[in-house]
Specification:
Strand content: over 45%
CATH topology of the largest domain: Porin
Mean pLDDT: 79
Helix content: under 10%
Shape: elongated
Structural class: mainly beta
Number of strands: 30
CATH class of the largest domain: Mainly Beta
Low-confidence stretches: 1-36, 307-329
CATH superfamily of the largest domain: monomeric porin ompg
Distance between the termini: 105 Å
Largest sheet: 12 strands, antiparallel, barrel
Radius of gyration: 33 Å
Protein backbone atom coordinates (compact mmCIF):
# COMPACT_ATOMS: atom_id res chain seq x y z
CA UNK A 1 0.00 0.00 0.00
CA UNK A 2 1.54 3.39 -0.92
CA UNK A 3 2.57 5.72 1.88
CA UNK A 4 -0.34 7.92 2.96
CA UNK A 5 -3.07 5.67 1.54
CA UNK A 6 -5.81 4.72 4.00
CA UNK A 7 -7.83 1.55 4.44
CA UNK A 8 -11.14 3.14 3.51
CA UNK A 9 -13.96 0.70 2.66
CA UNK A 10 -15.69 0.70 -0.71
CA UNK A 11 -19.33 0.50 0.40
CA UNK A 12 -21.29 -0.25 -2.79
CA UNK A 13 -20.26 -3.86 -3.49
CA UNK A 14 -20.12 -4.65 0.20
CA UNK A 15 -23.63 -3.36 0.87
CA UNK A 16 -24.94 -5.59 -1.92
CA UNK A 17 -23.20 -8.61 -0.42
CA UNK A 18 -24.50 -7.86 3.07
CA UNK A 19 -28.04 -7.30 1.86
CA UNK A 20 -27.96 -10.61 0.01
CA UNK A 21 -26.77 -12.47 3.09
CA UNK A 22 -29.43 -10.81 5.22
CA UNK A 23 -32.16 -11.77 2.76
CA UNK A 24 -30.84 -15.34 2.68
CA UNK A 25 -30.93 -15.49 6.46
CA UNK A 26 -34.54 -14.30 6.64
CA UNK A 27 -35.75 -16.75 4.00
CA UNK A 28 -33.70 -19.81 4.93
CA UNK A 29 -33.73 -19.34 8.69
CA UNK A 30 -36.97 -18.32 10.24
CA UNK A 31 -35.46 -16.04 15.36
CA UNK A 32 -36.06 -15.99 18.68
CA UNK A 33 -38.88 -14.34 20.59
CA UNK A 34 -38.00 -13.43 24.14
CA UNK A 35 -39.83 -12.87 27.40
CA UNK A 36 -37.14 -11.03 29.32
CA UNK A 37 -35.31 -9.15 26.59
CA UNK A 38 -33.55 -9.20 23.22
CA UNK A 39 -30.02 -7.98 22.80
CA UNK A 40 -28.29 -6.29 19.90
CA UNK A 41 -28.93 -9.27 17.58
CA UNK A 42 -32.69 -9.68 18.27
CA UNK A 43 -32.22 -13.00 20.10
CA UNK A 44 -32.89 -13.43 23.84
CA UNK A 45 -30.15 -11.57 25.67
CA UNK A 46 -29.30 -8.72 27.97
CA UNK A 47 -27.04 -7.00 25.46
CA UNK A 48 -24.00 -9.08 24.54
CA UNK A 49 -24.70 -11.82 27.11
CA UNK A 50 -27.21 -14.34 25.75
CA UNK A 51 -30.14 -15.65 27.83
CA UNK A 52 -31.19 -19.08 26.45
CA UNK A 53 -34.95 -19.49 26.59
CA UNK A 54 -37.29 -21.70 24.53
CA UNK A 55 -39.65 -19.75 22.31
CA UNK A 56 -42.86 -20.23 20.35
CA UNK A 57 -42.52 -21.67 16.84
CA UNK A 58 -43.04 -19.02 14.18
CA UNK A 59 -42.43 -16.01 16.42
CA UNK A 60 -40.59 -13.28 14.52
CA UNK A 61 -38.54 -10.55 16.19
CA UNK A 62 -36.92 -7.55 14.50
CA UNK A 63 -34.51 -5.14 16.14
CA UNK A 64 -32.59 -2.02 15.22
CA UNK A 65 -30.22 0.21 17.12
CA UNK A 66 -27.99 3.21 16.61
CA UNK A 67 -24.97 4.24 18.63
CA UNK A 68 -22.33 6.89 18.95
CA UNK A 69 -18.96 6.49 20.57
CA UNK A 70 -15.71 8.34 21.13
CA UNK A 71 -12.20 7.25 21.97
CA UNK A 72 -8.96 8.92 22.95
CA UNK A 73 -6.08 9.70 20.62
CA UNK A 74 -4.44 6.56 19.27
CA UNK A 75 -1.07 8.15 18.54
CA UNK A 76 0.97 11.21 19.48
CA UNK A 77 -0.01 12.98 16.25
CA UNK A 78 -3.83 12.81 16.43
CA UNK A 79 -6.76 13.54 18.76
CA UNK A 80 -10.08 11.92 19.70
CA UNK A 81 -11.83 9.63 17.20
CA UNK A 82 -15.61 9.22 16.74
CA UNK A 83 -17.82 6.36 15.54
CA UNK A 84 -21.46 6.26 14.54
CA UNK A 85 -23.02 2.82 14.03
CA UNK A 86 -26.35 1.20 13.20
CA UNK A 87 -27.56 -2.40 13.27
CA UNK A 88 -30.51 -4.28 11.83
CA UNK A 89 -31.38 -7.78 13.04
CA UNK A 90 -34.16 -10.32 12.59
CA UNK A 91 -34.74 -13.70 14.19
CA UNK A 92 -37.46 -16.34 14.13
CA UNK A 93 -38.25 -19.49 16.11
CA UNK A 94 -38.16 -22.50 13.82
CA UNK A 95 -39.20 -24.72 16.77
CA UNK A 96 -39.49 -23.98 20.52
CA UNK A 97 -35.83 -24.95 20.94
CA UNK A 98 -34.26 -23.97 17.60
CA UNK A 99 -33.94 -20.44 16.23
CA UNK A 100 -32.04 -18.70 13.46
CA UNK A 101 -31.00 -15.10 13.08
CA UNK A 102 -29.50 -12.63 10.61
CA UNK A 103 -27.72 -9.42 11.51
CA UNK A 104 -26.25 -6.53 9.52
CA UNK A 105 -24.16 -3.79 11.09
CA UNK A 106 -22.66 -0.68 9.57
CA UNK A 107 -20.30 1.85 11.13
CA UNK A 108 -19.00 5.25 10.10
CA UNK A 109 -15.66 6.29 11.58
CA UNK A 110 -14.38 9.84 11.64
CA UNK A 111 -10.63 10.19 12.24
CA UNK A 112 -9.01 13.50 13.19
CA UNK A 113 -6.44 15.24 11.08
CA UNK A 114 -3.02 13.75 11.66
CA UNK A 115 0.24 13.81 9.68
CA UNK A 116 -1.58 12.23 6.70
CA UNK A 117 -4.68 14.41 6.89
CA UNK A 118 -8.28 13.80 8.02
CA UNK A 119 -10.10 10.59 7.10
CA UNK A 120 -13.52 8.97 7.38
CA UNK A 121 -15.36 5.97 5.90
CA UNK A 122 -18.04 3.28 6.15
CA UNK A 123 -17.66 -0.43 6.87
CA UNK A 124 -20.36 -3.12 6.95
CA UNK A 125 -20.45 -6.50 8.69
CA UNK A 126 -23.15 -9.21 8.22
CA UNK A 127 -23.71 -12.28 10.39
CA UNK A 128 -25.80 -15.45 10.30
CA UNK A 129 -26.37 -17.50 13.44
CA UNK A 130 -28.32 -20.33 15.00
CA UNK A 131 -29.12 -21.12 18.60
CA UNK A 132 -30.37 -24.19 20.48
CA UNK A 133 -32.10 -23.40 23.78
CA UNK A 134 -33.87 -25.43 26.45
CA UNK A 135 -35.33 -24.80 29.89
CA UNK A 136 -35.21 -27.09 32.94
CA UNK A 137 -36.96 -25.52 35.91
CA UNK A 138 -35.25 -22.21 36.64
CA UNK A 139 -32.26 -23.10 34.42
CA UNK A 140 -31.91 -22.19 30.76
CA UNK A 141 -29.11 -23.68 28.72
CA UNK A 142 -28.10 -23.91 25.10
CA UNK A 143 -25.51 -23.46 22.38
CA UNK A 144 -25.01 -20.74 19.79
CA UNK A 145 -22.97 -20.71 16.59
CA UNK A 146 -22.40 -17.76 14.26
CA UNK A 147 -20.50 -16.97 11.06
CA UNK A 148 -19.61 -13.37 10.18
CA UNK A 149 -17.78 -11.37 7.53
CA UNK A 150 -15.41 -8.67 8.78
CA UNK A 151 -15.71 -5.30 7.07
CA UNK A 152 -12.99 -4.85 4.47
CA UNK A 153 -11.92 -2.73 1.55
CA UNK A 154 -13.76 -4.97 -0.92
CA UNK A 155 -16.01 -8.03 -1.11
CA UNK A 156 -13.20 -10.45 -1.92
CA UNK A 157 -11.13 -9.56 1.13
CA UNK A 158 -14.20 -9.90 3.39
CA UNK A 159 -15.05 -13.39 2.15
CA UNK A 160 -11.45 -14.50 2.55
CA UNK A 161 -11.68 -13.41 6.20
CA UNK A 162 -14.88 -15.34 7.05
CA UNK A 163 -14.83 -15.96 10.84
CA UNK A 164 -16.93 -17.99 13.28
CA UNK A 165 -17.99 -18.05 16.94
CA UNK A 166 -19.27 -20.87 19.14
CA UNK A 167 -20.70 -20.37 22.64
CA UNK A 168 -22.18 -22.54 25.40
CA UNK A 169 -24.98 -20.65 27.19
CA UNK A 170 -26.39 -20.89 30.71
CA UNK A 171 -28.93 -18.81 32.63
CA UNK A 172 -30.94 -18.91 35.84
CA UNK A 173 -34.38 -17.33 36.04
CA UNK A 174 -35.71 -16.06 39.36
CA UNK A 175 -39.05 -14.36 39.93
CA UNK A 176 -37.54 -10.95 39.03
CA UNK A 177 -33.83 -11.68 38.54
CA UNK A 178 -32.00 -13.21 35.59
CA UNK A 179 -28.38 -14.38 35.81
CA UNK A 180 -26.81 -15.34 32.47
CA UNK A 181 -23.39 -16.30 31.22
CA UNK A 182 -21.55 -17.84 28.30
CA UNK A 183 -18.19 -19.35 27.39
CA UNK A 184 -16.91 -20.05 23.91
CA UNK A 185 -14.27 -19.73 21.19
CA UNK A 186 -13.76 -17.36 18.26
CA UNK A 187 -12.01 -18.45 15.08
CA UNK A 188 -10.89 -15.00 13.96
CA UNK A 189 -9.57 -14.56 10.42
CA UNK A 190 -10.38 -10.85 10.21
CA UNK A 191 -6.70 -9.91 9.81
CA UNK A 192 -6.98 -10.98 6.16
CA UNK A 193 -8.82 -7.72 5.39
CA UNK A 194 -5.64 -5.78 6.31
CA UNK A 195 -2.65 -7.81 5.29
CA UNK A 196 -0.29 -4.79 5.28
CA UNK A 197 -1.09 -3.82 8.87
CA UNK A 198 2.19 -2.03 9.58
CA UNK A 199 1.24 0.75 7.11
CA UNK A 200 -2.24 1.35 8.53
CA UNK A 201 -3.01 4.60 10.29
CA UNK A 202 -4.22 4.27 13.92
CA UNK A 203 -7.70 5.39 12.91
CA UNK A 204 -7.93 2.72 10.20
CA UNK A 205 -6.87 0.07 12.71
CA UNK A 206 -9.72 1.11 14.97
CA UNK A 207 -12.25 1.25 12.11
CA UNK A 208 -11.42 -2.24 10.84
CA UNK A 209 -11.61 -3.90 14.28
CA UNK A 210 -9.44 -6.70 12.87
CA UNK A 211 -7.42 -9.11 14.98
CA UNK A 212 -4.44 -11.41 14.43
CA UNK A 213 -5.56 -13.75 17.22
CA UNK A 214 -8.23 -16.34 17.87
CA UNK A 215 -9.98 -15.74 21.18
CA UNK A 216 -11.64 -17.38 24.16
CA UNK A 217 -15.04 -15.78 24.80
CA UNK A 218 -16.72 -15.29 28.18
CA UNK A 219 -19.42 -13.11 29.65
CA UNK A 220 -21.76 -12.77 32.62
CA UNK A 221 -24.73 -10.50 33.18
CA UNK A 222 -27.58 -9.67 35.54
CA UNK A 223 -31.07 -8.53 34.60
CA UNK A 224 -33.68 -7.29 37.08
CA UNK A 225 -37.34 -6.85 36.22
CA UNK A 226 -38.73 -3.73 37.91
CA UNK A 227 -42.38 -3.81 36.93
CA UNK A 228 -42.36 -3.63 33.12
CA UNK A 229 -38.83 -2.24 33.04
CA UNK A 230 -35.72 -4.39 32.73
CA UNK A 231 -32.48 -3.12 34.26
CA UNK A 232 -29.32 -4.94 33.24
CA UNK A 233 -25.56 -4.91 33.60
CA UNK A 234 -22.92 -7.20 32.14
CA UNK A 235 -19.25 -7.91 31.68
CA UNK A 236 -17.98 -9.50 28.43
CA UNK A 237 -14.43 -10.49 27.56
CA UNK A 238 -12.54 -11.66 24.47
CA UNK A 239 -9.21 -13.18 25.58
CA UNK A 240 -6.78 -13.04 22.67
CA UNK A 241 -4.93 -16.36 22.54
CA UNK A 242 -1.18 -16.06 22.03
CA UNK A 243 -1.20 -12.28 22.25
CA UNK A 244 2.03 -10.67 23.53
CA UNK A 245 -0.12 -8.11 25.37
CA UNK A 246 -2.96 -9.87 27.25
CA UNK A 247 -4.16 -6.55 28.71
CA UNK A 248 -5.15 -5.48 25.18
CA UNK A 249 -7.78 -8.24 25.02
CA UNK A 250 -11.23 -6.63 24.60
CA UNK A 251 -13.22 -6.16 27.80
CA UNK A 252 -16.66 -4.50 27.82
CA UNK A 253 -18.68 -3.19 30.76
CA UNK A 254 -22.32 -2.39 29.97
CA UNK A 255 -25.34 -1.06 31.84
CA UNK A 256 -28.76 -0.40 30.39
CA UNK A 257 -32.52 -0.27 30.67
CA UNK A 258 -35.22 -1.77 28.43
CA UNK A 259 -38.95 -0.96 28.53
CA UNK A 260 -42.06 -1.64 26.38
CA UNK A 261 -43.63 1.27 24.50
CA UNK A 262 -47.28 2.12 23.80
CA UNK A 263 -47.45 -0.10 20.69
CA UNK A 264 -47.92 -3.78 21.61
CA UNK A 265 -44.76 -5.78 20.92
CA UNK A 266 -42.55 -2.67 20.65
CA UNK A 267 -39.86 -1.96 23.24
CA UNK A 268 -36.94 0.44 23.49
CA UNK A 269 -33.51 0.21 25.06
CA UNK A 270 -30.82 2.61 26.22
CA UNK A 271 -27.39 1.31 27.22
CA UNK A 272 -23.90 2.59 27.87
CA UNK A 273 -20.78 0.56 26.99
CA UNK A 274 -17.28 1.12 28.33
CA UNK A 275 -14.30 -0.51 26.62
CA UNK A 276 -11.87 -1.24 29.45
CA UNK A 277 -8.91 -2.76 27.58
CA UNK A 278 -5.39 -1.36 27.39
CA UNK A 279 -4.36 0.21 24.08
CA UNK A 280 -1.72 -1.80 22.21
CA UNK A 281 1.37 -0.13 20.77
CA UNK A 282 1.34 0.57 17.05
CA UNK A 283 3.11 -2.15 15.11
CA UNK A 284 2.62 -4.91 12.61
CA UNK A 285 0.14 -6.84 14.82
CA UNK A 286 -3.61 -6.21 14.79
CA UNK A 287 -5.75 -5.91 17.92
CA UNK A 288 -9.52 -5.23 18.08
CA UNK A 289 -10.01 -1.54 18.96
CA UNK A 290 -13.39 -0.13 20.06
CA UNK A 291 -14.56 3.33 21.20
CA UNK A 292 -13.82 3.93 24.87
CA UNK A 293 -17.43 4.96 25.59
CA UNK A 294 -20.49 4.19 23.45
CA UNK A 295 -24.12 5.23 23.93
CA UNK A 296 -26.64 2.86 22.31
CA UNK A 297 -30.31 3.48 21.48
CA UNK A 298 -32.37 0.54 20.27
CA UNK A 299 -35.85 -0.56 19.23
CA UNK A 300 -37.23 -4.10 19.15
CA UNK A 301 -40.52 -5.36 17.73
CA UNK A 302 -42.05 -8.75 18.43
CA UNK A 303 -44.66 -9.54 15.80
CA UNK A 304 -48.04 -10.87 16.87
CA UNK A 305 -48.44 -9.19 20.25
CA UNK A 306 -51.72 -7.43 20.95
CA UNK A 307 -53.05 -5.06 23.55
CA UNK A 308 -55.19 -6.54 26.30
CA UNK A 309 -58.53 -4.89 27.17
CA UNK A 310 -59.23 -3.56 30.67
CA UNK A 311 -62.97 -3.58 31.60
CA UNK A 312 -64.60 -0.20 32.10
CA UNK A 313 -64.67 0.98 35.70
CA UNK A 314 -68.34 1.94 35.40
CA UNK A 315 -71.13 0.63 33.23
CA UNK A 316 -71.57 4.14 31.85
CA UNK A 317 -68.10 4.13 30.29
CA UNK A 318 -68.37 4.26 26.53
CA UNK A 319 -65.31 2.18 25.57
CA UNK A 320 -62.94 -0.12 27.37
CA UNK A 321 -59.43 1.25 27.75
CA UNK A 322 -56.65 -0.75 26.07
CA UNK A 323 -53.64 -1.56 28.20
CA UNK A 324 -50.37 -3.16 27.20
CA UNK A 325 -49.53 -6.77 27.77
CA UNK A 326 -46.17 -6.53 29.59
CA UNK A 327 -43.14 -7.74 27.66
CA UNK A 328 -42.00 -9.46 30.88
CA UNK A 329 -44.95 -11.69 31.78
CA UNK A 330 -45.18 -12.38 35.52
CA UNK A 331 -44.46 -16.11 35.90
CA UNK A 332 -46.64 -18.42 37.90
CA UNK A 333 -45.75 -21.19 40.34
CA UNK A 334 -47.02 -24.75 40.75
CA UNK A 335 -47.19 -26.62 44.06
CA UNK A 336 -48.03 -30.34 43.93
CA UNK A 337 -48.85 -32.55 46.91
CA UNK A 338 -48.38 -36.17 45.80
CA UNK A 339 -49.77 -39.04 47.91
CA UNK A 340 -49.86 -42.82 47.42
CA UNK A 341 -53.00 -44.93 47.74
CA UNK A 342 -52.52 -45.16 51.53
CA UNK A 343 -52.38 -41.36 51.89
CA UNK A 344 -48.62 -41.24 52.51
CA UNK A 345 -46.30 -38.71 50.78
CA UNK A 346 -44.82 -40.23 47.64
CA UNK A 347 -41.15 -39.43 47.19
CA UNK A 348 -38.74 -39.60 44.25
CA UNK A 349 -41.45 -39.30 41.61
CA UNK A 350 -40.83 -37.81 38.17
CA UNK A 351 -43.11 -34.78 37.81
CA UNK A 352 -42.96 -32.49 34.75
CA UNK A 353 -45.15 -29.74 33.33
CA UNK A 354 -45.51 -29.76 29.52
CA UNK A 355 -46.14 -26.53 27.59
CA UNK A 356 -45.72 -26.08 23.85
CA UNK A 357 -43.66 -29.23 23.47
CA UNK A 358 -41.24 -28.20 26.24
CA UNK A 359 -41.17 -30.28 29.44
CA UNK A 360 -39.95 -28.65 32.68
CA UNK A 361 -39.44 -30.79 35.81
CA UNK A 362 -40.82 -29.91 39.24
CA UNK A 363 -38.36 -30.05 42.14
CA UNK A 364 -39.14 -32.11 45.25
CA UNK A 365 -38.93 -29.46 47.99
CA UNK A 366 -39.91 -31.89 50.80
CA UNK A 367 -41.26 -35.48 50.94
CA UNK A 368 -44.22 -35.63 48.58
CA UNK A 369 -44.15 -31.85 47.90
CA UNK A 370 -43.08 -30.79 44.38
CA UNK A 371 -42.64 -27.21 43.17
CA UNK A 372 -41.91 -25.12 40.06
CA UNK A 373 -41.46 -21.35 40.49
CA UNK A 374 -41.02 -20.24 36.86
CA UNK A 375 -43.89 -21.76 34.88
CA UNK A 376 -45.34 -19.84 31.96
CA UNK A 377 -48.97 -18.73 32.18
CA UNK A 378 -51.40 -20.67 30.01
CA UNK A 379 -52.67 -24.21 29.51
CA UNK A 380 -50.29 -26.96 30.57
CA UNK A 381 -50.26 -30.69 31.35
CA UNK A 382 -48.82 -32.29 34.46
CA UNK A 383 -47.22 -35.71 33.93
CA UNK A 384 -46.44 -37.86 36.97
CA UNK A 385 -44.50 -41.14 37.03
CA UNK A 386 -43.36 -43.15 40.04
CA UNK A 387 -41.97 -46.66 40.18
CA UNK A 388 -44.62 -49.17 41.17
CA UNK A 389 -47.52 -46.74 40.60
CA UNK A 390 -49.83 -46.00 37.72
CA UNK A 391 -48.83 -42.88 35.70
CA UNK A 392 -51.07 -39.82 36.00
CA UNK A 393 -51.65 -36.92 33.59
CA UNK A 394 -53.68 -33.86 34.47
CA UNK A 395 -54.47 -30.67 32.50
CA UNK A 396 -54.07 -27.42 34.44
CA UNK A 397 -54.62 -23.73 33.70
CA UNK A 398 -51.81 -21.48 34.93
CA UNK A 399 -52.84 -17.91 35.68
CA UNK A 400 -50.40 -15.01 35.33
CA UNK A 401 -48.73 -14.19 38.65
CA UNK A 402 -50.80 -16.73 40.60
CA UNK A 403 -49.74 -19.87 42.47
CA UNK A 404 -51.51 -23.12 41.55
CA UNK A 405 -51.95 -25.79 44.24
CA UNK A 406 -52.65 -29.34 43.04
CA UNK A 407 -53.31 -32.45 45.17
CA UNK A 408 -52.87 -35.81 43.44
CA UNK A 409 -53.22 -39.37 44.78
CA UNK A 410 -51.77 -42.18 42.68
CA UNK A 411 -52.72 -45.85 42.69
CA UNK A 412 -50.28 -48.72 42.84
CA UNK A 413 -49.67 -50.45 39.54
CA UNK A 414 -50.90 -54.03 39.52
CA UNK A 415 -47.93 -56.41 39.39
CA UNK A 416 -47.82 -59.33 37.01
CA UNK A 417 -47.92 -61.48 40.16
CA UNK A 418 -47.03 -61.17 43.82
CA UNK A 419 -46.08 -63.19 46.85
CA UNK A 420 -46.55 -61.53 50.23
CA UNK A 421 -47.09 -62.39 53.83
CA UNK A 422 -46.00 -62.20 57.50
CA UNK A 423 -43.06 -63.90 59.20
CA UNK A 424 -43.29 -64.36 63.02
CA UNK A 425 -41.99 -66.56 65.78
CA UNK A 426 -44.27 -69.12 67.43
CA UNK A 427 -44.83 -66.54 70.18
CA UNK A 428 -46.17 -64.05 67.61
CA UNK A 429 -43.11 -61.80 67.53
CA UNK A 430 -42.34 -60.21 64.08
CA UNK A 431 -39.04 -61.51 62.73
CA UNK A 432 -36.36 -59.97 60.54
CA UNK A 433 -36.22 -62.54 57.77
CA UNK A 434 -35.06 -62.90 54.18
CA UNK A 435 -37.36 -64.39 51.54
CA UNK A 436 -36.20 -65.98 48.31
CA UNK A 437 -38.21 -67.53 45.49
CA UNK A 438 -36.90 -70.38 43.36
CA UNK A 439 -36.47 -70.56 40.43
CA UNK A 440 -35.67 -66.96 39.53
CA UNK A 441 -33.83 -65.93 42.68
CA UNK A 442 -36.07 -62.95 43.54
CA UNK A 443 -35.41 -61.74 47.10
CA UNK A 444 -37.08 -59.54 49.71
CA UNK A 445 -36.75 -58.72 53.40
CA UNK A 446 -39.38 -58.23 56.06
CA UNK A 447 -40.09 -54.81 57.54
CA UNK A 448 -40.31 -53.96 61.25
CA UNK A 449 -43.75 -55.63 61.45
CA UNK A 450 -42.57 -58.84 59.74
CA UNK A 451 -44.35 -58.02 56.48
CA UNK A 452 -42.87 -58.73 53.03
CA UNK A 453 -43.95 -58.60 49.41
CA UNK A 454 -42.22 -59.75 46.27
CA UNK A 455 -43.34 -59.15 42.68
CA UNK A 456 -42.85 -62.17 40.40
CA UNK A 457 -44.02 -63.32 36.97
CA UNK A 458 -46.85 -65.90 36.91
CA UNK A 459 -45.62 -69.42 37.60
CA UNK A 460 -44.95 -72.10 40.24
CA UNK A 461 -42.37 -71.33 42.91
CA UNK A 462 -40.84 -72.54 46.12
CA UNK A 463 -40.65 -69.78 48.72
CA UNK A 464 -37.63 -70.04 51.07
CA UNK A 465 -37.95 -68.15 54.39
CA UNK A 466 -34.89 -67.75 56.62
CA UNK A 467 -34.20 -65.84 59.85
CA UNK A 468 -31.04 -66.03 62.01
CA UNK A 469 -31.54 -68.39 65.01
CA UNK A 470 -34.68 -70.00 63.54
CA UNK A 471 -35.38 -73.04 61.43
CA UNK A 472 -35.88 -72.13 57.74
CA UNK A 473 -39.11 -73.01 55.93
CA UNK A 474 -39.80 -73.84 52.28
CA UNK A 475 -43.35 -73.30 50.96
CA UNK A 476 -44.96 -74.03 47.59
CA UNK A 477 -46.72 -71.16 45.79
CA UNK A 478 -48.55 -70.98 42.46
CA UNK A 479 -48.91 -67.42 41.18
CA UNK A 480 -51.52 -66.58 38.54
CA UNK A 481 -51.48 -63.56 36.17
CA UNK A 482 -52.03 -60.46 38.35
CA UNK A 483 -52.61 -62.87 41.23
CA UNK A 484 -51.48 -62.50 44.85
CA UNK A 485 -50.39 -65.49 46.97
CA UNK A 486 -50.29 -65.09 50.75
CA UNK A 487 -47.50 -66.96 52.52
CA UNK A 488 -47.50 -66.53 56.32
CA UNK A 489 -44.81 -68.35 58.29
CA UNK A 490 -44.29 -69.03 62.01
CA UNK A 491 -40.66 -70.07 62.56
CA UNK A 492 -39.37 -72.22 65.42
CA UNK A 493 -35.93 -72.00 67.05
Amino acid sequence: MPEGETMRARPTGHVTTCAGLLAFGLVAAPAFGVELGAGERARPALRRVAAPEPGVAGTLVAAADASGGVTEALSDSDSAHARFAARLAAAVDATPWLNFGAWLGGRYDVHPRDARGADDGWLFQPELSTRLAWRSGALGYGFEAAAWLPGGADVGSSFSALSADGRALLSHYGSDLLVAGYAGFRLDRSAKVAEDAARLRPGDRSALGASDYNAALAGVGLGYGLGRTLLFGELAAQLLLGSPKPAASPLWLSVGVRRPLATPGLSCEVSLDAFASARPDAGSELFPLEPRVTLNLGLRYRFGERAAVKPAARAAASKPEPVLVPVVAKPTSIELALLDDRGQPLQRAQVVVSQGGVETPLVEASPGQYRLDQARPGRARLRIKAEGFQPVERDVDLQTGAALRVDVRVEQALPAGQVRGLVRSFRGKPLAASIRVEPGGGQASTDAEGFFQLDVPPGEYEVVIESPGYQPQRRKAKVDQQGVVIVNADLSQ
